[in-house]
Design brief:
The complex is a heterodimer of chains A (401) and B (293). With 401 residues, chain A is an alpha+beta fold. Chain A is built from nine helices and 22 strands. Chain B is mainly α and 293 residues long. Chain B has a single domain, classed as MetI-like (MetI-like fold, Orthogonal Bundle). In chain B, 75% of the residues lie in helices and 0% in strands. In chain B, 28% of the residues are buried. The chains are: A alpha+beta (401), B mainly alpha (293). Bound molecules: adenosine-5'-diphosphate and magnesium ion. The site of adenosine-5'-diphosphate (ADP) has 10 residues of chain A, from helix 1.
């Protein structure tokens, strides 16, 4: 059913000799919502710019429908982009921004008298008008046609940028952190709206974000990237439940990651104790990373637990408590709806499907220990205090006016 | 806080009052009075005789402004687009002449454009005149009547005056346009490309309209001094093509000493220039609107 539209083959990109994308192999299917997810600087924008045609990969191939596109300039590619900071034309109103692509005639190959000729095709005025208004309705901006760009809020500019790209009916839409500049509420609204638009139009979205929640909520496929390399490709469930390495496990949601040894299929040892698990196919006695999601852990009275630890910090997070528990010097994050005060000794039970086993990787030992957790919170407190101070000083600035 | 800020503004206000507002008031008073400072309109009613000077000044200034725009825009565009190397070289080349005194620069042009000046000597050296004369003699009905040329007449023409103005005022066209183009957001051009625009269309639909503010201020900065220019026309136009600046200068410093008439002429010129600028800025805004619609 799903047809492949775009493929990157062994794509590498270097700026000034510094490798930014390292041998990317990736394909994009028709009508798919695919998200490139990774920390800032991992090469997401670079990947999009290669697909959009703004840069040419140092090596490797970009294929559209199997045809090599490396040297085709952006204006001849059948993809459109929603830029990171919208890049709306300030000298045009909303209508003209959206109509921009339609007003540009496209050259198409046509048979004229039996000969193939390049013909410039222009869209008639009333069709342009119809399509622009229709698209403004899709993005809920009906009635804003004559507004100037600087009269719009961030969310509205965002919608104009989406309409401007979509009105050209591209097969593939590239979106570079389109919701990054919006506040949380608006971001959530726009997430579902974008998903709705994508399904309604039935086109491929290649979506870039560093926000894992956003990626999980919207995507059909997530590509997790770090340092110019693809770490894992899969559905949101795959990525969350079966992270391939410690980086993915840590980046997608919270994880406790500990050293373990795989004794045999379905048996793993950590904290000098054997646990049943669902993973197999590892070498006997292979050292592994063990991932345990904080929300999977059940807290029980100490005498009933497989492991016993002492609560060292509790933070109320609305739906649940973030409880940090010290197990023999190794601190875990446990999320429960029950309150356990600091100093209480608790037991935990791990079911086989709560335990995920990963091969060791370059990321082993870098993530998954919550010893520094409380300090993180203090740092965050500092940040908010700084914010308040800044606000205070800007208020003073206001008085000067 | 308010007081502190206005305190800092005091020198500026004094400066403005002393050197901008006061002279204008004086010009107005002079324009409407006789030599004995009796009120009169006579300075204006008799101005008709200078009509040809008015039209010539505005004509030449408009031509010079257009030439500056035609030369300046591509240079500004290239400076903004090319790498920093080109940018630096171009900036130095443009600024260098401005460090030389205005009169010196114009004198230099005199010696270049003179009938036996550098340029004509150069044409002679490469045999241009011999070539023209040979062809001319061939084409003439009566070769014996043909008068061979030994130089091009370049100095003491309106063309020389325009050249002098363009040379002097070109930087004032380039710099504002450059500074607007160089600040344009690159992503706007990428967005246009993304929407199917080739480089010509990107220029026409994005760069050009967004650089109009720079063009407007460049045109203003060239046109205003060009209208009131003096010395250039005297030195390069050979005095045969008097311009408003020269006329006014004569009333204050020259033999025709009459500061009251000079003030009146200056006032009329100022009003015409202000009206021109106002119309142009309106037009500029209109342009933006037109693009929008
Ligand atoms: N034009 C460029 N010149 C030099 N380095 C660049 C350029 N574009 C991106 N980079 C570098 O490539 C890396 C990846 O950048 P980018 O793709 O923008 O990351 P992301 O979008 O994932 O945050 C960064 O280290 C960045 O500094
Ligand atoms: Mg980016």
């Amino acid at each position: 059913m799903s047809k492949e539209l775009i493929r990157l083959v062994n794509c590498s990109m270097a700026f000034d000799g510094e490798l930014v994308l390292d041998n990317m192999n990736l394909y994009f299917n028709d009508s798919e919502f695919l998200t490139l997810l990774g920390p800032s600087g991992c090469g997401k924008t670079t990947t999009l710019r290669i697909i959009g045609g703004f840069i040419t990969p140092t090596s490797g191939e970009v294929l559209f429908d199997g045809v090599r596109m490396n040297d085709i300039p952006p204006h001849q590619r059948q993809v459109n982009t929603v830029f990171q900071r919208y890049a709306l034309f300030p000298h045009l109103n909303v209508f003209e921004n959206v109509a921009f692509g339609l007003r540009i005639g496209r050259t198409e190959e046509k048979e004229v008298n039996g000969k193939k000729k390049k013909v410039k095709v222009r869209i008639p005025q009333d069709e342009i008008r119809e399509r622009v208004l229709e698209m403004l309705e899709v993005v809920s901006l009906k009635g804003f046609e004559n507004r100037r760009i600087n009269e719009l809020s961030g969310g509205q500019q965002q919608r104009v940028a989406i309409a401007r790209a979509l009105v050209n009916r591209p097969k593939v839409l590239l979106l570079d952190e389109p919701l990054g500049a919006l506040d949380l509420r608006l971001r959530k609204d726009m997430q579902s709206e974008l998903k709705r638009i994508q399904q309604q139009m039935g086109i491929t979205f290649i979506y870039v974000t560093h926000d894992q929640e956003e990626a999980l909520a919207m995507s059909d496929t997530i590509v997790v990237m770090d340092q110019g390399k693809i770490q894992q490709i899969g559905t949101p469930e795959d990525i969350y439940n079966e992270p391939k390495n410690a980086f993915v496990a840590d980046f997608i949601g919270e994880s406790n990651i500990l050293d373990g040894i795989m004794h045999e299929d379905y048996v793993v040892e950590f904290f000098n104790r054997k646990f049943k698990c669902l993973d197999k196919g590892f070498a006997p006695m292979e050292p592994v990373d063990v991932v345990i999601r904080p929300e999977d852990i059940d807290i029980v009275p100490p005498e009933k637990g497989q492991l016993r630890g002492v609560v060292t910090s509790v933070t109320f997070k609305g739906v649940h408590y973030d409880t940090i528990v010290d197990f023999k010097g190794f601190k875990w994050l446990i999320q429960t709806t029950d309150y356990h005060p600091v100093g209480e000794t608790i037991g935990i039970i791990l079911n086989p499907d709560d335990i995920h086993i990963m091969h060791k990787s370059q990321y082993s030992g870098m993530f998954g220990d919550y010893s520094s957790y409380s300090e993180e919170y203090e740092e965050m407190d500092d940040v908010t205090m700084l914010d308040e101070e800044e606000e205070g000083s800007s208020r003073e600035g206001g008085n000067e006016e | 806080m308010k007081n502190k800020r206005s305190l800092f503004a005091v020198p500026y206000v004094v400066w403005m009052a002393l050197f901008v507002v006061a002279p204008i008031i004086m010009v107005v008073i002079y324009a409407f009075t006789t030599a004995a400072f009796d009120p009169t309109m006579g300075n204006f009613t008799g101005m008709g005789v200078y009509l040809s000077i008015f039209t010539r000044s505005f004509e030449l200034a408009i031509i010079a402004t257009l030439v500056c725009l035609l030369i300046g825009y591509p240079i500004s565009y290239m400076m903004a687009k090319e790498g920093p190397g080109f940018q630096r070289v171009a900036t130095v080349l443009i600024m260098l002449p401005m460090w030389v005194n205005f009169l010196l620069r114009t004198y230099a042009w005199m010696s270049i454009l003179e009938n036996n000046g550098l340029l004509n000597q150069f044409f002679d050296a490469i045999g241009l005149f011999d070539l023209i004369n040979a062809i001319g003699a061939q084409l003439a009905d009566d070769p014996s009547q043909y008068v061979p040329i030994t130089y091009f007449r370049m100095i003491r023409t309106q063309g020389a005056v325009v050249l002098g103005m363009v040379y002097n005022y070109l930087p004032f066209m380039i710099l504002p346009i450059y500074s607007v183009i160089v600040k344009l957001d690159r992503s706007l051009m990428e967005a246009a490309q993304d929407l199917g625009a080739n480089s010509v269309t990107v220029f026409r639909k994005v760069i050009l309209p967004l650089s109009l503010p720079g063009v407007l201020s460049g045109v203003t900065m060239v046109f205003v001094p060009a209208v009131s220019t003096f010395a250039i026309s005297r030195l390069l136009g050979g005095g045969t093509h008097m311009m408003l600046g020269d006329l006014i200068e004569q009333q204050f410093l020259g033999g025709a000493y009459n500061p009251h008439l000079g003030s009146a002429i200056a006032l009329v010129m100022m009003i015409i220039v202000v009206v021109c600028m106002w119309v142009m800025n309106r037009f500029g805004e209109g342009e933006e609107q037109a693009v929008m619609l």
